[in-house]
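Below is how a single chain appears once it has passed through the pipeline. First comes the sequence as given, then the structure the pipeline wrote out for it. We keep one example in the README because the format questions we get most often are answered faster by looking than by reading.
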Amino acid sequence: MKVLQINAVYGVGSTGVILQSLRERCKQNGIDCFVASQINRDAIPGDYIIGSKIESLLHALLSRIGGKQAYYSRFATLRLIRYIDKLKPDIVHLHNLHNNYVNVNMLLRYLAKNQIKTVITLHDCWWYTGGCYHYTTVDCSKWLIRCGHCPKRYLEIPALLCDCSAKIHDDRKKYLLAIKDLTIVGVSDWISGEASKSFLRGRKILTIYNGIDFNVFKPTPSRLRSKYGIEDKYVLLGPANKWLDEINKPVLSYFMEHMGPNFVLFLMGHSGKNFQFGPQIRFLPYTNDKKELAEIYSMADVFVNCTREESLGLVNIEAQLCGTPVVTFSGTGISETVPVSGQVPVGNAKDLFSKCLCPPEPDPVFLARFDSDITYQSYISVYLA
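Resulting structure:
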């Protein structure tokens, strides 16, 4: 059996690592797994790079002008289709196609015409909306019937000239439902449930959590407290992209106001450039090194996540596996990553801070569901079905 995975990246980022793990699991089960991606940090013979940098830049420009992402890169997609024709995979597994590198309608039309078994993993909501990745923060439910007059028109991929969300939504429905053998995999029960309310209802939809390597993410000795001179501090840790989001300014302000001199909040995944805070707010640059991440998680007294909408949220799970309690806003797929005792209502800074002072300890039984040995084997069952 041959499986071809298509994604924006391979070997980097959360989805890129997921592809690597799936490939290894395929190998263990005697399945040949190939990868087609825009960026590949760990390519092996047979892998395919989609498009060029110039094509991607042009695609990005046209997406913003015309308001339709994944509608360009026609020549790059034609070359990809020739590669698929030559490879002759039994299954094509689609992940994130919204990174300015492929024409999604052309690809879906090809898969339907050639009756290729197709698996789609919902890492976000893009596959069943009119172009947005998530919609809960703007309280939008148009995707249930037909998108249009998109409230996120200028918030994610800006549509400068026109709102094409209705056209995009119609095309998604047309081309996806034309694929006879289609399996939809949600990375949480929440997003699987959302998909089942969309035009995908009636199709095969199931949940497979993103898996984590329990041999890497575990309590790990760390010298970081000594390095930063914070041995006697109460250390909070959180993802910088969430804490620095404009919508979370009040949350950050509340924490800065209420953290005493014995507190320090580390924002991970950012250099801190162009931000000036007091000594209680520090930055940790982005790293793709899993062992280094385990050290960072293990350093903290509590991991604090003010994310407001996510399909799942692997950082919450990784931190708990490293023995660090997690306190997070609830809602969407996030609520499946932390026991109820670690959740507070979205936007409630006071409750978030209060729970940080006495966070719940990680629950090994709760976390067992994210073991990669279990989750990625579930994909093999999907392939063989």
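The mean pLDDT is 95.

See the next section for the split statistics.
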